[in-house]
Write a structure and sequence with these properties.
The complex is a heterodimer of chains A (129) and B (131). With 129 residues, chain A is of the alpha+beta class. Chain A is built from two helices and five strands. The radius of gyration of chain A is 15 Å and the shape is globular. Classes of the chains: A alpha+beta (129), B alpha+beta (131).
């Protein structure tokens, strides 16, 4: 079970993730997207999924990643990600509720390039009973 | 026509195991339930399933194609309703539809839906486009 003290707290990633053109090319190739000058709208999941999992795997938070199912996903894109962006992730547990033993956790992850907010994402994760 | 109520042309994408492998490599999500039939069945799934985020990425492609490029998409959201099941040596459909639900100045809001084999797999989905 999630530690209720974790709700509302923001956890910061330690490292900057540098986006390469080949990352964008590979993502575009799956979608047969010819314009590779900007990343497709869901590209940031490549960074936030890993980063938020790393940031929120701290045992004191108590989130069991092995039983997680993805419920909802939302992106707010301030500008498209481009090659050579150096992005830092911070993740906040925005809300938490338990219904019929299933835990519903909303995680917001923000990606910043220096002080500029580039993308905010919200993932609703369901930890099955 | 960019008016509230306009229905966009439906588009069918095809998903196969090769696409799941390339999406796994492109996204970094190497969860074996998206590639290994034995493991998928061992955790109670009918077969290998597509990454939910691949489904969403394809719906995103539908949006960017209509919008004239990824740079026009400001918001994109949705709910994963059911998994897209991908048996070996088959191409399964992802049928995407959309309609315009709001127009305010240069901002257009689309409502989107996706089905696979007739089952609703992605819904409660909206995209905000700025032209």
């Amino acid at each position: 079970m999630l530690n209720p003290d974790s709700v509302g707290r923001t956890f910061h990633g330690a490292e900057e993730v540098i986006v390469t053109q080949s990352h964008i090319d590979a993502f575009c190739a799956v979608l047969s997207e010819k314009d590779t000058t900007v990343a497709p709208p869901t590209f940031s999941i490549r960074i936030t999924l890993d980063q938020s999992q790393e940031i929120l795997s701290n045992p004191e938070i108590g989130l069991d990643w092995t039983r997680v199912v993805h419920g909802d996903q939302r992106f707010e894109i301030k500008r498209p990600i481009v090659a050579n962006d150096s992005l830092k992730c911070s993740s906040t547990i925005e809300s938490y509720k338990v219904t019929d033993g299933n835990e519903f956790v909303v995680i917001r992850s923000d990606l910043h390039a220096a002080d500029e907010l580039v993308v905010s994402t919200w993932s609703t994760l369901v930890v099955r009973a | 026509m960019i008016d509230v109520g306009t229905v966009l042309d439906e588009k069918v994408f095809y998903i196969d195991r090769a696409m799941l492998k390339s999406y796994a490599d492109a996204s970094g999500d190497q969860n074996p339930i998206h590639q290994n039939e034995e493991i998928a069945k061992a955790v109670g799934l009918p077969n290998v399933i597509a990454h939910g985020m691949l489904t969403m990425a394809l719906v995103g492609k539908y949006v960017t194609q209509w919008a004239g490029g990824s740079q026009h998409v400001k918001e994109f959201s949705g709910r994963f309703m059911k998994p897209v099941v991908v048996p070996a040596d088959q191409k399964v459909d992802l049928t995407v539809s959309g309609n315009i639900v709001a127009v305010e100045g240069n901002q257009i809001t689309l409502e989107l839906n996706a089905t696979s084999a007739g089952i609703k797999v992605f819904a409660m989905s909206q995209a905000v486009i700025v032209k």
